[in-house]
Protein 1
Amino acid sequence: MATLKDIATEAGVSLATVSRVLNDDPTLNVKEETRHRILEIAEKLEYKSSSSHRTQVNIVNQHHILALYSYQQKLEINDPYYLSIRHGIETQCEKLGIELTNCYEHHSVPTIKKLTGVLVVGKASEVICHTATSLTDNICFIDFQPPGGKYDFVDTNLTQISQEIIDFFIQQGATRIGFIGGEDVPGEADIREVAFAEYGRLKGVVSESDIYRGSFSSASGYELAKEMLAKKDYPSALFVASDSIAIGVLRAIHEKGVSIPEQISLISINDIPTARFTFPPLSTVRIHSEMMGIQGVNLLIEKVRDGRALPLQVYVPSQLKLRGTTR
């Protein structure tokens, strides 16, 4: 069965564009010929969305998974990381013949008579956690580690990634490393920032004045980088919390006339498709977010199938991709 990725590859566009066209997003600004091409390819490949696929499945004892996303769907437009997680979930459900219901923040949770399990994606609030636990004991968190260790989760080790980036810069001769990041909860430091600050101070290369925090967006990265560059005395190495933020950081650095990587080198996280096409191309840590979604589905099914009681913690490995923003 065709997937969003199959359509995107044949149409020569991003996953986000395909998703927004097929969901008839009124805010999407795309050429009519592109929209028409995507719809034609979807029809040719007989693509079915998870919702339309559900109406065609009529199998006794069929698994049915509810995916609760702790954010609004529009976030997937600005951050392909989350779109990739959903793509992994949908791909694996289609592959295994599993019914899937997606539910985003602020949407009412549908009633499902025979629920196999719940996937909770993103940093879950108490409300979302309570909703999930009220429905089933078979819960897997993705991109979030719930306290207490009672449930399965699939995540990537951001603490380890932050430390490895600092070690890389030190090996390159950096004696002062800055951080530009975002926050999921107002006033609360992200795990990347916490790990960076603690390990960086231990290594003697980080000070509080070189840590900047805004939101996980290119616009925020742009403003924070301008604030940093306005001081004139700024670090020569930067750890940026996400590729989306880094795109704004790059623009601010270019406008200031600072050369990359000669005067400032930087590494970000996620390796979104755009990362290869920035100027210069972004050095970044690839997180296999699609695999996170796939493994979340697998854990739910495996737990039911085998009657497993012990919660599992799965860390998907990452990979540093060195490009033009580092020496």
Protein 2
Amino acid sequence: MTTGDDLLLIAIVTGRRRIRIRGPERLRFALRAAELADLGHAGRIAVGARGIEVIDARRVADRRLNNVLHSLAAAGSPPDAADWLRRTPRSLTNEYLSWLEDRKVVRVRRRRDPGGRTRHEILSLAPGRRRAVLDRLDGVVRAGGGEAPGDADLTLAVLVQLADLARAAYPGLRGTGDRRRLAALVAGGHLASAGSRAGQATDEELAAALDAGADSLTRLLQGELGDLYADFTTGGHGLGHSADPGSWSDGGAGGTGHHGGGGHGDSGHGGW
């Protein structure tokens, strides 16, 4: 399971009548950022002023991340991080949903609406898998003086806040305190990395970049995503006009497959 898988599990919520994905349009950009974060934590890429540089093209365990790594390596020059995020395929949320379906984490029914669009109805979700992810998020939000959270958990917490999924993770009045703590942690920059990776690098410049730990990469992605969301929110480009997650599109859209061999990918527009 990747950080993107975990993020999608948090976004899948049970409503009064059905299970749905909260804010899939905003979510897809966070999924794209999660891929960069996972590759960065694995020591495969470095994201900085020079763009997204592949520093180790060896395969990673996840097939989808391998495809992303291959795309980055095949680029003529290091892609700009902001541009990479803005070119997120509209199908990305659906692709992640299909992957969870292949892993038997969710069960999905697809149908065509009168307009020819594919609708995705989530019939069931393995609650234990989602609960395990929420427990990891709790470890960041409610951390005391114990062991520092891991890099992936720190990144997950930041992306949950940026994608406006705090209410999905901590709903209702009972979740108010945790939502406030998460917002304060992310806004105040108080998330501390579990450790340094400088010892893995031989290049001095790379060693200095990795020595900043996961926090540096996550903060960079946080800034890029924040700018992207602000542009789309105020510019009317599909993410709605307010910070209220309920106001955003509840439908994803198909398009060119992002990860290749997506199994259930659909070329038509989709939604939930």
Protein 3
Amino acid sequence: MTSVMIFIGLAGWIFLLVAVYLYFKEKKENKSKTIKLNIKEEKPKVVVIGGGTGQSVFLRGLKHYTPNITAVVTVADDGGGSGVLREDLGMLPPGDIRNCLLSLANIEPTMSEVMKYRFTEGALKGQSFGNLFLAAMNGVYGNFETAVYKMSEIFAITGRVLPVTLEDINLIAHLENGNSVKGESNIPNQVRSQNTRISRIKLEPENAEPLDEVIKSIYNTDIIVIGPGSLYTSIMPNLLVGGVVDAIRNSKAPKLYIANIMTQPGETDNYNVVDHIKAINKHCGENIIDIVITNNEVLPKPVFDIYNKDGASQVLLDQNQKQILESMGIKVIECNLVEIKSNYIRHDADYISSIVVNLALSHNYGNEK
């Protein structure tokens, strides 16, 4: 802990100076671009709710289609470097926030690589410098919301990133075998080791309050996007914060769920698209999703086998599932969502973003294919 505190202290002062320089440099260089942007046709407002790698990948594509992005991010992470800082410094976990900030950032590639750097030795082994940077900002300003806002300014991000709540929350998973597991990082491992499934996820405390700006954004957006991301550990922690589901349901914007390409071992084993929707409905009530975007591309066998060795399978839609979704009043958009790089499967952020923006502009999702 002492090493972390010393490093954060030094990082706070050194990189605040660097950050101020980058901020004014970017501000000067982008001034003309900003003026041009303001006179263009208005771009749709998009709220993206989630966390983890899926959300940050999607945001990286979305920022090229609209500047009016609000990323609502879970703060239930308690593992890895984020978990260490959360425990040692009593701050909210920075990892998912950091990833979203970097996805929406307009900074030089070198600075981006520095922020992603993970230490390989010593007391800071495994810790991301971006996490330490955000921790330093939190220490300087004494408030996590302000720290995220200031970091957003420094990185000249497109849109904004909001923690879903400022309260210290933890996930509790109630399993089908009757046991309970506390902690986001423990849940998948315990589900697998106990050979069971998740029955229900809850927050501790259950009455966590959302950030006011989160609720305002949901009411004032043109489309609400849930996912992609881990169903129980990235998406649910946002939906379970008080008032969030009510705001989503009462918002006039279409509600879109981006289905995962693969199941997540220890979390959604053997789930299909309908299973994901039913899990959301179980926790949030009926009629929260209007549209589902799902992948219909069968993966190449060599790539599939890599994931299948860890117990993952493809999340694909069949005719029976289509009929079930239609009976629930949910429109389905099927397309090839897959992007494969170095045998690593990701969502095609650019393609999905184009679909989302078109839906937001038209609201005529029944004709979108």
